[in-house]
Amino acid sequence: MEYNHKEIEQRWQQYWKDNETYKTEVEPGRKKFYVLDMFPYPSGAGLHVGHPLGYIASDIYSRYKRQQGFNVLHPMGYDAYGLPAEQYAIQTGQHPEITTNANIARYREQLDKIGFSFDWSREVRTCDPEYYRWTQWAFMQMFNHWYDRAEGKARPIAELVEHFSKYGTEGVNAATGKDMEFTADEWNAMDERRQREVLMNYRIAYQGETMVNWCPQLGTVLANDEVSEGVSVRGGFPVEQKLMTQWCLRVSAYAQRLLDGLDDVQWSESLKETQRNWIGRSEGAEMRFGVADSDIELEIFTTRADTIFGVTFMVLAPESAYVPMLTAPEQKEAVEAYLNEVKHKTERERQIDRKVSGVFTGSYAINPLTGKKIPIWISDYVLAGYGTGAIMAVPAHDSRDYAFARHFNLPVIPLIEGADVSEESFDAKEGRMINSCGPDLDLNGLEVKEAIARTKRHIEEKGLGKVKVNYRLRDAIFSRQRYWGEPFPVYYKDGVAYLMDESVLPLRLPEVDSYLPTSTGEPPLGRAKGWVTPEGYPIELCTMPGFAGSSAYYLRYMDPRNDKALVGKEADEYWRNVDLYVGGAEHATGHLIYSRFWNKFLYDLGYVVEAEPFAKLVNQGMIQGRSNFVYRIKDTNTFVTYGKRKEYDTTPIRVDINLVNNDILDTEAFRRWRPEYADAEFVLDADGKYRCGYAVEKMSKSMFNVVNPDDIVERYGADTLRLYEMFLGPIEQSKPWDTNGIDGVHRFLRKLWNLFERAEKNDTEMSREEKKSVHKLIKKVTADIENFSFNTSVAAFMIAVNELSALKSVSRESVELLTRVLAPFAPHIAEEFWHRLGHEGTVVDAQWPEWNEDYLKEDIKKYPVSFNGKTRYTIEAPADAPREEVERIALADANAAKWLDGKTPRKVIVVPGKIVNIVL
RNA sequence: GCAGAAAUGGUGGAAUGGUAGACACGAAGGACUUAAAAUCCUUUGGCCUUUACCGGCUGUGUGGGUUCGAGUCCCACUUUCUGUACCA
Prior knowledge:
The protein is α+β, with helices and mostly antiparallel strands. A hairpin with a 2-residue loop joins strand 18 and strand 19. The structure holds one RNA strand.
């Protein structure tokens, strides 16, 4: 019989479906393993061959773990809220839900063809009310909690209210937007509206007026991770800074815990580093500078307290609250002109145009250590959002301050011995201090590190400021002025936000007649009829951002149909957290931060048992497209083969890769492709073939380089696709898709099929050679799966099948073992073999075999080598042989080979399990 | 600028500090065929030697170092990719 992948794959996919082979339940007493893929956003373009790469890897791992006896949770779902569906709805008027459902159906069809072991009974969709009620529920919990720094966890807001009514702010150490101080009497005297305003400053989900990334084209605000290089990640539209009142999540309260938690997870070093940078912890000091002829004190943050004697001016961010206070009357006009200029620059312009600019306020600060007067300037190189929005400038030892000082001709005082600051600043934190002696403090002669510590101590003792840790991580902006997202269970009374009762959950997304903002500029929900509470109070018009729904989906998979809780106690205590998470590294500063935050918050409240959601994480690389080019001679319809293109004046043109095979163009198909190429002429290579050029680019329709997995499955089968994607290279590496090599993998499966047919009925015992080949394979594949090195395991299968095929006789037992280890990689063909071997049930539960080291022992190999003019005799030692024994054998062997020639060896090097060298 | 990763044949890529280039693609030659496809066999880093067998030299971005032994470890440099950036 021939290997018929279509028939086999259809049959077993149906069998798995009929028998609910992949359905998983909580089984107390059985060890669990949770394997998760980052769920996809179902785009209209469907899946291309790059998407399943990570799913295949995680599927192999899941099946392997299941064969080892683990109860494996391996779910899949859809991140269904997102901008593209809404943009499409705006253009077509079609409800995004319709588009989204159609896309999901298409994704499901494509995924099913690849033979994944997903438990689809646990599917979640972020846009499903039964799912998003728990997203809304989590928001309500965040609204009703505050972060207690003293206890290092979230606590109910009711406890804070009680504390305020008894003691005021005394003894409260909370993560807040701005520090507040009031007594119990003052609190009790406040009206409800005022009290709620105060509490807003403490809530973990709060409304705050902040500088936000506003994208006019998308009509919405964006989180920091949704903006890159001044444009929106989705769509690439310009983004500007705008002061707006928005819902925010107090992620910054968890900065230190998010940082510390990274030590407890097995993630790649680069990903952890990206998160550490994003959190951006910096230790320094917050210091107050007095202002001349004024009571105002200017607070600044610095990591270089040691450079205080070199401060020659101060700089405020243009948005700083100090600006109006410190602008002297005679400078008013100049300052306003400057502020105006800065305001009209978008973030992108600010980044591109890095000209030094600024204006003098007319005020002077007093250096607290020297008593000297120093001018206060305003410049946009100081950011309002970091630290206090004001800095002390040390031009000699900070390149930005240096550029500013040179431009405005301000003094530069070098503070480090030997530092030449005539051309540029000396930024390194090393060297000995000079010029650093004041009335109370002498730093001269100290190393920079000592000087920093010394100065910090000094300013704390003298009450000039305090030691402070700053984080770059900002609170997440949580509202979007869009339609296609989770509505907030929030209404407004007297302009103050109140939570709706939990009984309204899920608060369903209402219908609207159009997905555009209203004529008054309100978000699309402003068009929804009856979008008010029963009492007639208006409901929040913004919706939640994309990351809301994806922040806790891994928890919901554990208990997806529970209508009492996000996840029930029993399910959570059994499944705990994700043992293996597979997905792209592009989520490092978005999803992977937000869901860790979300999880830690729920952990504080006692709803989840693990502090870190993803114990181990593997980043799969991106699969890029491989575009092909033809070369047209300018102003003609003649195309030149790649090798001869330089002999003419040609323009490269992308050609559909379906017309190309191994870079050879099907010229007839090319003529039929587009009417304008119908009478195309070709300049060919000597062998009469037209060779195309190629380039590695993003896989996209417009580049004609998209490869659809359905086509591959149709032609070669799912097992071939799975093996080939793994064979392409290391899973973490980005690489171009190249269909050219797929024949090799398909050939392997056919050889395997033939081998099986030959061995199926052979009841003889395994020969020594068979044992060696098969056990070598088991050992290799087991180690490779643990290391996520799937490309080398595919190679190992090929070697084993080649070795076995070359033998005169192959026993049934050999192919039985082969089937067990092949099952995670090529489940369809393995299932076929499994049943033909007479097994009941499914190969998914076939026990993972152990290998026997005894079968792998090699004969001692010997080979003489010469090196560096000295001759050496080398033999390979068996792995388990004792050192003396190996040395004795080696010497005897060398002697027998007449190699020693009666001489005494100068040196004998024995490395157990390695190689023995005898040096003369 | 900073951080991380990487650099091996025509290509994708293998190699716990121990025979570099596994496995596969491509290419070349051959078998089968009227022919093509498919399949099978042989060769395939470079240079040299030999009728052939056998052999030799060289070779993992560059320059040093550690080691009996380095693609692998250390130092410096070059290039590429990824992330991030007036973060004080």
